[in-house]
Design goal:
heterodimer, A: alpha+beta, Beta-Lactamase, two-stranded antiparallel sheet, 4 helices, globular, B: alpha+beta, Leucine-rich Repeat Variant, 5-stranded antiparallel beta sheet, 55 helices, 56% helix, repeat (chain B), Clathrin/coatomer_adapt-like_N (chain B), ARM-like (chain B), membrane (chain B)
Chain lengths: 142, 1236
């Protein structure tokens, strides 16, 4: 499995978004990324040896991807950047509060980038187009 | 109408932060009611809230049914909530999942593509084998959906379906292949993604996709896609060496031209791990056989690529971006084994990384550094690392100054600590890692890297003083191991460890939670065991038995008790090192006789120990208590001894001196597996009860009673018990030599010891001098040559199994699933019935293949009996019956095999076009001929063709027709395999022959052929051969005239040139092989080589024999007195028949009888004065058993594992009239099996 989970935490370690692409036996792992380089090696806690944790820190939030060796580390860092840019576009100047109050929307946005643990789309305009289409239909039906 | 929305819930939770738990509980209760309402809006909102709470860790499994209700709504946002909730809360065993099948099916076919997308996204996570089976036809159809958005989603979703329901692969993979050429780049990217994941798990099946992927690699500009493809090729490379060559150029280009660091990095990593950079020449690469020789052949592109990689990685490491630094180090780690020198050049930058603030980077650098360690630089690297952990006094001083300065002047406050060392020293994880790594590489291969053991012991002792590290036990193990193995270092170690035991500040460290005092266990054991090197026994004893020692752990305490007793014994018998004021002592002989222990000293020490032991015998730890009690009893005994009167005054009582004999004898290193290898003596049942267990009696009572009994015994017979144990040790040792009195009375030996120890101490001082850190490559000369005892004791006859045997190949579930489907074998939509049919066939194959052969054997025996006895008729009848039966089983199994083959053929046109792929690789081959193995395989292909030609005369392939135009068809019949006899950069030379028959009483004529393959870039004009006559054979031209020179016409590039000749071989009864020297002249030079004609040349060209004749031949023991057998693994038993035919051709044996999985072969020499020599053989194949039966099989299966797990074993039994010939044949079979 390529990407095992996407997690968003705030600075104090509170989870804001957790999306697992594997059916995990039990939830809530505790990650406290503190060191300077953005990769952590897998441990028994999360997925075993073939697991890498790649994260990026934006303002008050940590974006964490749990991946295996079939993903490129630097590639995932770029992907996090794409995710943040999409969120920024969708919420207009995204901040932690947006993620707190609209987890379902974030989840839906994430599903346009990563589907079932595989990267679905990396092109920013393409992702935004789909999101706009979705919103239109949502507005019509609601 | 008044239900909370998701927004309200979140707001509420935040507002009630103080009693969050209670608030959520009430909300949950509300939700339980809400999900049951009929209003779908309310239901959906409740599910959305549950989804949020699930993220906070609350269970929502109970709502599974309601989630499905929401999923089935017609409103899109309901559906969305439903699918999101299902994705996070459903498990494989969620029982309402079976209600989903139709729902999802309907959604997939929805007119609204967003609904289909929701269903696909949800299905990704919740798919089960059942869902996979039911929905895969729909999904596969959707791969051609008109919207690219759906196509890419379907492709990704199918991957998850494959994992659960692998059968879907058969139909889906060809479609997936089409999608690699999709017009939409995102769809291509998704397809590559899926192929990449699949190929990671089962690369073999996806090799045929290489040409398309290669095109994408060369044309795409999407970095994300390129990264995936490069990674994918990394997985495929190990399977297809030709691919590596094709990839080198594009990869090199990408590394040099791309601006994306991520892509450059992946290219470098793939180049390293995919085998594009071969190991350096001096490495012993040729050991591994064919594959290794191929990779070790020098490719000039190799070193260019390696250079580019290393220089690029250097940029990574030097970059200020920590991520690049980390990855650079990681890649260098992988490159190091291949190009140690090139990586070694950047040692300085790597060492700088060890000082980085980031622990991930330090760890990587450490890993790299520890694999760079060599005998030359081990000391410097370890010293460097220790220096990091233990700030030297100057540094500490500087830090103090710094702290002082910063506290006085606020302007310095913002500055970071001057060096990383301060933080490093307090970082215990790193410290532990550093020390374990050092221990690991130093102790590797029984201390292969360590030259100076005094330094090493010193370093070990310094490790335990690192604050915050917990390495006591590891270091203890190493100390004991070193002292046991290296005799020369014991003296030094005892002194250093005595100092450690007496180190008050070290003892103080027990106050910290993390300390290394466990090392004192080893320290005490060593000073006790090697107490003859102790120079201050009385003082040492006072430190060993001391009230403060109770702070140490119980294991250490028990070791102390024992050590104290040993040191005491050594002191009494004068068997410790003498004080160093030596001038007087050398003259005064009496000083050596016995140490002068005064009565006061004796009594004082005894009383001191008695007191200490009596306190310790009250310890709460059982081991300490027992040992202390033992010691107490022994000491009491000694205390009560009457000193004998002697002229010199008071002497130590003799009986007290006997104490030392308890500890006599050397301890040897014991193999860790020794205990398990001790054979169980006959008649000993380890599982049997020693005492039959008591039936239901109150168990507590019994154990209590037994406990008392034990105690009493312990205190009464403690001393005796101990001495009993030691008796055996004593018996093992040479009494006289080790008797303390004997040594004591031998002044010369003591003198020598003393001398030696003196020189050693001098050298110690020298070697502990601080070393210059910059002298990287000039190792400090070790002061002494140390002898290391590398032999581990084992029980007699026991053999240690290698770790490899023990390790089992473990795979995760997903990989197993994907591998379970072999794309090149049967595929169909109605796969279930097919699979069943397949299994039946397999079962037929699996059913014992040997019975038929056994029957043949039985038949032979019976015939013989029938011939000798007079009950002809009866036995003949039964023999006949037997025969029929044999035939029947043969037919049956034959049918089964045919069925299996049929099913193969049916699906032989694989889903992915194999022909195209071969072209892809072969074009490359012709353009740039690769050398070695691939050419060899080509020539053997040619050879194989020739053998089929022999079986069916027309039509001849044009190439071969021209080769053998002068020969008759049956002359070629035997010509089956060319052997490589000369391998050059520009050409390859093969040689083959066939026997034509006897020309005279003493000569056999062979028809032979030399085959030249031109592998250079230019058409070669000609090859000229001169062949010298050998001692027992001569070579002529085809028409029989004497041969001087043999010339070929011009040989085209990548073409063949052939030369025919005749060989006349002298017959001999021993059937010896013959050899002639030959030279080959080309433009590029002259080469000499040998043409070897193996013993098989003596076989008749075509001998026919009936099965009955074969049996008769075998029944005469005089025909075949010699026997031998060989077994070799094969990747698959399916093509056993082809394999046997090839093998028989190669050995020049005729196939007598062939049944499923077993073949009998026969050969007969042409005959000479020595008579005819017969060869009979039986080749059998069987599927490999799970557990190999004997050692040889184990060895074989080890190599077979590399080829593939589901192989078979072919066994070849040979009987022959000549011992020499049988060896030659077996060797030939061996040769043959190595080419498989």
């Amino acid at each position: 499995m390529a990407i095992k989970a996407t997690l968003i935490f705030n600075n104090t370690g509170k989870p804001r978004i957790m999306q697992w692409y594997q059916q995990m036996a039990s939830g809530n792992p505790i990650v406290s990324p503190e060191s300077a380089c953005n990769f952590l090696e897998g441990s028994a806690l999360i997925g075993g040896n073939d697991t890498k944790i790649i994260y990026r820190h934006y303002a008050t939030l940590y974006f964490v991807f749990v991946v295996d060796s079939s993903e490129s580390e630097l590639g995932i860092l770029d992907l996090i950047q794409v995710l943040v840019e999409v969120l920024d576009k969708a919420f207009v100047n995204v901040c932690e509060l947006d993620l707190i109050f609209r987890p379902d929307d974030v989840s839906s946005i994430l599903s346009e980038i990563v589907s079932g643990g595989m990267v679905l789309e990396t092109n920013l305009p393409n992702i935004c187009d789909v999101l706009t289409a979705k919103n239109e239909i949502n507005l019509r039906t609601r | 109408m008044f239900e909370k929305s998701l927004h309200d819930l979140i707001r509420g939770i935040r507002a009630n932060a103080s009693q969050e738990e209670r608030f959520i509980r009430t909300c949950l209760d509300e939700m339980r009611a809400e999900v049951k309402k009929t209003d779908l809006d309310v239901k959906a909102t409740a599910v959305a809230k549950l989804f949020y709470l699930h993220m906070l860790g609350y269970d929502m499994n109970w709502a599974a049914f309601h989630i499905i209700e929401v999923m089935s709504s017609h409103v899109l946002w309901h559906k969305r909530i439903g699918y999101i909730a299902a994705a996070i809360s459903f498990r494989q065993d969620t029982n309402v999942l079976m209600l989903c099948t139709n729902l999802i099916k309907k959604d997939l076919q929805s007119n609204n593509y967003l609904e289909a997308a929701l269903a696909l996204n949800g299905l990704c996570t919740i798919v089960t084998p059942d869902l996979g089976r039911d929905l895969s036809p729909d999904l596969i159809a959707m791969m051609n959906h008109s919207r690219a958005y759906i196509r890419k989603r379907v492709i990704l979703c199918l991957y998850k379906v494959f994992l659960k329901y692998p059968e879907a692969l058969r139909v889906a993979v060809p479609r997936l292949k089409d999608r690699l050429e999709d017009s939409d780049p995102s769809v291509v990217s998704a397809a590559v993604n899926v192929v990449c994941e699949l190929a990671r798990k089962n690369p073999k099946s996806y090799l045929p996709l290489a040409p398309q992927l290669f095109t994408i690699l060369n044309t795409s500009t999407n970095n994300w896609l390129l990264i995936k493809i490069v990674k994918l090729f990394g997985a495929l490379c190990p399977l297809e060496p030709r691919l590596i060559k094709k990839l080198v150029n594009p990869i090199t280009n990408l590394i040099q031209t791309t601006s994306a660091m991520s892509l450059a990095y992946e290219c470098i990593l793939t180049a390293i791990t995919g085998g594009m950079i071969s190991a350096e020449h001096d490495a012993s690469a040729s050991v591994d056989g064919a594959s290794a020789t191929l990779s070790s052949t020098d490719r000039p592109t190799d070193s260019i690529l390696a250079k580019i990689c290393v220089s690029k990685l250097k940029v990574f490491i030097a970059d200020s971006d920590q991520n690049l630094k980390y990855l650079g180090l990681f890649a260098l780690c992988k490159l190091l084994p291949l190009r140690p020198k090139a990586v070694g050049e950047h040692r300085d930058i790597i060492l700088d990384c060890l000082e980085d603030n980031d622990i991930s980077i330090r760890m990587r650098a450490l890993e790299l550094v520890s694999s760079m360690v060599s005998k030359k630089n081990v000391v410097v690297i370890v010293e460097y690392l220790i220096k990091q952990l233990i700030p030297s006094e100057e540094d500490e001083h500087a830090n103090d100054m710094h702290r002082f300065a910063s506290s006085t002047s606020s302007s310095l406050h913002h500055q970071q600590p001057t060096s990383a060392k301060l933080t490093l020293a307090s970082d215990s994880t790193y410290g532990n890692e550093v020390i374990s790594r050092i221990l690991a590489f130093c102790s590797k291969d029984t201390y292969a890297l360590v030259a100076d053991f005094q330094w090493y012991v010193g370093a070990l002792i310094r490790f335990v003083k690192v604050r915050g590290a917990v390495v006591g036990l590891e270091v203890a193990g190493q100390l004991m191991d070193v002292c046991v193995r290296v005799e020369g270092v014991r003296d030094f170690a005892v002194n250093a460890l005595t100092a450690l035991i007496m180190d008050e500040s070290f003892l103080e460290s027990t106050a910290w939670e993390k300390n290394n005092t466990d090392v004192l266990f080893a320290a005490a054991w060593i000073v006790g065991e090697y107490s003859r090197y102790v120079s201050n026994p009385q003082e040492l004893i006072q430190y060993l038995i001391n009230p403060r020692m109770t702070r140490l752990s119980a294991t250490v305490q028990s070791s102390y008790v024992q050590a104290a007793l040993k040191v005491y014994a050594a002191w009494l018998s004068g068997n410790t090192k003498q004080p160093q004021n030596s001038d007087l002592m050398v003259l005064d002989e009496s000083a050596f006789k016995k140490p002068s222990i005064s009565k006061e000293e004796f009594v004082g020490a005894n009383q001191y120990l008695l007191q200490g032991m009596s306190k310790l015998s009250g310890s709460i730890d059982l081991e300490v208590q027992e040992r202390a009690s033992n010691a107490f009893q022994i000491l009491t005994l000694i205390n009560s001894l009457e000193a004998p009167l002697s002229l010199d005054g008071w002497t130590v009582p003799d009986a007290a001196l006997d104490l030392a004999t308890l500890f006599v004898g050397e301890l040897n290193p014991v193999n860790p597996q020794a205990q398990s290898l001790v054979p169980v003596p006959e008649g000993l049942d380890l599982d049997a009860w020693i005492h039959d267990p008591e039936p239901d009696v109150a168990l507590d009572e019994i154990s209590e009673v037994e406990g008392y009994g034990d105690d009493g015994e312990g205190s009464l017979f403690g001393g005796e018990k101990k001495s009993g144990k030691k008796e055996s040790r004593k018996a093992a040792a040479d009494r006289k030599k080790d008797d303390p009195f004997y040594i004591g009375n031998d002044p010369t030996s003591l003198d020598k010891d003393d001398e030696a120890s003196k020189t050693k101490t001098k050298k110690t001082k020298k070697s502990t001098k601080p070393r210059d850190l910059n002298l990287f490559d000039s190792p400090p000369a070790p002061s002494t040559e140390y002898a290391i005892n590398r032999n581990d004791e084992l029980p007699k006859g026991a053999v240690v199994k290698s770790l490899k045997d023990k390790l089992k190949f473990l795979e995760d579930e997903d990989t197993m699933a994907v591998r379970s489907v072999d794309l090149s074998s049967p595929a169909s939509a109605a796969s279930d019935t097919h699979r069943l049919g397949w299994e039946v066939n397999r079962a037929a194959l699996l059913s014992e293949p040997t019975p038929q052969l056994k029957d043949v054997g039985v038949e032979v025996v019976r015939k013989k009996k029938g011939g000798s006895s007079k009950k002809d008729a009866e036995s003949e009848v039964s023999g006949g019956k037997k025969k029929k039966k044999t035939k029947k089983t043969e037919e049956q199994s034959g049918r089964a095999t045919a069925a299996v083959l049929d099913s193969h053929r049916q699906y032989d046109e694989p889903a992915v076009g194999a022909n195209h792929v071969d072209e892809f690789f072969d074009v490359e081959l012709n353009k740039k001929p690769s050398r070695g193995a691939s050419i060899l395989s080509e020539t053997s292909n040619v050879a194989l063709m020739s053998s089929t030609v022999a079986a069916e005369p027309e039509p001849l392939p044009p190439l071969l027709a021209s080769v053998f135009e002068t020969m008759e068809a049956d002359e070629i019949a035997g010509l089956s395999s060319f052997k490589l006899c000369l391998e050059k950069e520009e050409f390859l030379l093969g040689f083959d022959w066939t026997s034509l028959g006897r020309t005279s009483e003493e000569e056999i004529c062979l028809s032979a052929c030399l085959l030249v393959y031109n592998s250079s870039e230019v058409a070669s004009s000609s090859f000229t051969f001169t062949i010298a006559p050998g001692s027992n054979c001569r070579v002529t031209s085809v028409d029989g005239s004497d041969l001087v020179k043999l010339e070929s016409g011009p040989v085209p590039v990548a073409g063949f040139g052939k030369m025919l000749l005749k060989v006349f071989l002298k017959t001999n009864s021993a059937l010896e092989p013959a050899s002639v020297g030959a030279t080959c002249m080309t433009e590029s030079g002259v080469d000499t080589f040998a043409l070897t004609i193996p013993a098989m040349a003596h076989f008749a060209p075509a001998c026919t024999i009936t099965p009955t004749g074969f049996a008769e031949c075998l029944s005469n023991p005089a025909n075949c007195p010699h026997a031998s057998s060989i077994q070799f693994p094969v990747p698959s038993v399916d093509d056993f028949s082809t394999l046997v035919h090839t093998l028989a051709k190669r050995l020049r044996l005729t196939i007598v009888e062939e049944v499923s999985m077993a073949v009998s072969v026969y050969g007969r020499s042409i005959g000479s004065k020595g008579g005819v020599v017969h060869v009979a053989g039986l080749i059998k194949a069987r599927l490999k058993a799970a557990k190999p039966a004997n050692a040889m099989m184990k060895a074989l299966s080890a190599s077979a594992n590399a080829a593939g797990a589901a192989g078979g074993i072919v066994s070849f039994e040979l009987k022959c009239g000549s011992a020499a010939l049988i060896d030659v044949l077996i060797e030939e079979v061996n040769d043959f099996s190595s080419t498989l």
